[in-house]
Amino acid sequence: QVQLQESGGGSVQARGSLRLTCEASGYTINWYCIGWFRQAPGKEREEVATVDKNGNPNYAPSVKGRFTISQDTGANAVYLQMNSLKPEDTAMYYCAAAFECRAPWFEWGQGTQVTVSS
After folding, report:
1. Beta carbons of 34 and 23 less than 8 angstroms apart
2. Distances from the Cα of 79 to the Cαs of 44, 68, 117, 118, in angstroms?
3. How do residues 20-37 score in pLDDT, each as one tens digit?
4. Residue 1 or 58, more confident
5. Of the candidates 10, 50, 53, 57, which lies 20 to 30 Å from 97 by C-alpha distance?
6. Which residues contact 74 (CB under 8 A, 6 or more apart)?
């Protein structure tokens, strides 16, 4: 059974940093594309970053240059390093798995809250 679990969220001041972790169980993390998404109250879900099976990253324009997505096959996890955080980054962050990065996302974690204060 494929499962994903996020951790690492919290409250931070603007310009601070957080690292989110997406741990996988039931499969090896680089068998699939893993994506990080976020959703703020009253807003649509936004794709933040993805990493494909080969470790190639892709970023939303709103986070490019500030966020870094990476795989750790030893830990069977994907990280999202978030630097220079802004209040508009405040949201619930989710990770998800897909067979390919443009295929439907078939597995989602429960989410971890990130709150950035000004």
Report:
1. no
2. 23, 8, 22, 25
3. 999 999 888 889 999 999
4. 58
5. 10
6. none
- Give dist(CA 102, CA 42) in Å, integer: 25
Q: Given its phi and psi angles, is residue 111 left (phi above 0), alpha (psi -120 to 50 degrees) or beta?
A: left
Our CA angle for 45, 83, 60, nearest 5°, is 35
Distance CA 52, CA 17 (A): 24
DSSP-assigned states of every residue in 5-60: EEE--EEEETT--EEEEEEEESS-GGGSEEEEEEE-TTS--EEEEEE-TT--EEE-
Both tokens of 43, joined, read 């807003």
Q: How many percent of the chain have pLDDT more than 90?
A: 91
42-90 tens-digit pLDDT: 999 999 999 999 999 999 999 999 999 999 999 999 999 999 999 999 9
